[in-house]
Every structure is written in C-alpha cells, then in structure tokens.
Design brief:
With about 220 residues, the protein is mainly α. It has one domain. It is built from 7 helices and 2 strands; from the N terminus they run ααααβααβα. The protein has helices spanning about 1-15, 25-45, 55-80, 80-95, 105-130, 140-165, 180-215, and strands at about 100, 175. Strands 1-2 form a two-stranded antiparallel sheet. The relative contact order is 0.14.
C-alpha cells in the first residue's frame, strides 16, 4: 500500500519533466512484476496476505499498481520493445525452473517467482537511475527522500516475512525453491538501501558545498 502512494506521486509528477528513479525502464520492470502479481492473485488465494494487514485491500493495491507503472514506463517500452521481450523470456525461463509450490495452480507458482524476478531487476535499475540522477529542486529532494524511505521500509518488511515465515525445508519447490524468493527480496533491499544511502550522501555533500560556494 505504501508503494502505491509512491507510484501515484510519481505519476502525478511525471508530466512536469522532473527526474525520478521510478521512471522508464525501472517502471517497465516493476510493471512486469505488478502484472505477474495481479495474475497470481486472480489465479489463487494462496498468495493473498493474511492477518490484520491482509485481505482484499492489499490485493486491490497490488492490482492498481500495474496501470500506474505502465503509464510511467510506456516510453521506455516503446523504445526497447525487443529488449523487454527478451527479458520476459529469460524471466519465464528462470521461473519455470525455480519456483515454490504454495498454490495448487502451477501457473500461480511460476508467476509469483517471475514477479520477484521483475522486481529485482526493477530495484537494480532504480539504483542505477539514482546514481545518474541530478536535481537541485527542494520539492523534488523531499519527494525523493520520501520515495527512498518508503522503498526501504516496504522491502524490509518483505525480507522479514520471507526469512521468518517459512523454513526452507517446510516449503516444497523446484530448483532453488523458496531461496529464489528470499534472495530476490534481499537483493532488492540491498539495492534500495544503496540508493537511499547515495541520496543521503549527496544531500549532505550539497549542504556542505553551499556555504563554501556562498562564501566565495
């Protein structure tokens, strides 16, 4: 649900020409993950969240992400259709050989692994776009800070869940099985932490530079 707010904010700002790590290729990869997750949730309730934060609301939030992310990444999708198609094939190949068996529907298990693969690729691109971004706008800096914070917090919760909720021996799977999901979650968290750290370091560097520049 937190990520839905971040993506919605990015969509509203996308028309202003401001840079965001969520745009273009990053959004396309995340769109692939959101589309796969939406298909999983429609195929099987085995992957629905349970407990106080579970149920229909987080499911609807996941489904709403897909069209918003498509809006953010449609330009990159038009530019790199062949590349994106190749990525889809490779992700499908990996998911076919490495998946968990939480649902009775085989397609849901494959799509769930595929969703995590797309999200890992999106996180790596998010880090790359953060490395290349350059904006001095105070409003954008606040928005980016909020985005980095939400991405780290949300992914930390996912890592905690997948590392604590299941023991590797209690969940059957193909290939890497649940380890593929856990490694994907950890990889995403590392990418988001690196991006957030880079953003904070850049902010402190700019703050230190401004008094010197003003004095000169």
């Amino acid at each position: 649900m937190l990520r839905l707010i971040v993506v919605l904010s990015a969509v509203l700002r996308s028309g202003s020409g401001t840079a965001s790590p969520l745009l273009d290729e990053c959004a396309v990869m995340w769109f692939g993950g959101a589309a796969a997750r939406s298909a999983v949730l429609m195929h099987s309730k085995a992957y629905w969240l349970e407990g106080p934060v579970g149920g229909l609301i987080p499911t609807i939030s996941e489904v709403l992400l897909a069209p918003l992310l498509f809006a953010l990444g449609k330009r990159a999708l038009r530019r790199s259709t062949l590349t994106m198609s190749l990525v889809v094939v490779l992700v499908g190949f990996f998911a076919q050989r490495n998946n968990i068996h939480l649902a009775e529907e085989h397609e849901a298990n494959l799509l769930f692994t595929a969703a995590h693969c797309f999200e890992l690729l999106s996180a790596v691109l998010y880090l790359g776009r953060t490395l290349l971004s350059d904006s001095d706008s105070p409003d954008l800096q606040f928005s980016l800070t909020f985005t980095h914070l939400v991405m780290v917090v949300q992914q930390s919760l996912a890592v905690y869940f997948w590392l604590q909720a299941f023991e590797p021996d209690t969940v059957s799977g193909t290939g890497l099985g649940i380890a593929a999901i856990q490694l994907s979650c950890l990889g995403q968290l590392c990418a988001y932490l690196a991006a957030a750290s880079l953003h904070v370091a850049t902010w402190f560097a700019d703050e230190a530079y401004q008094p010197i520049h003003a004095h000169l």
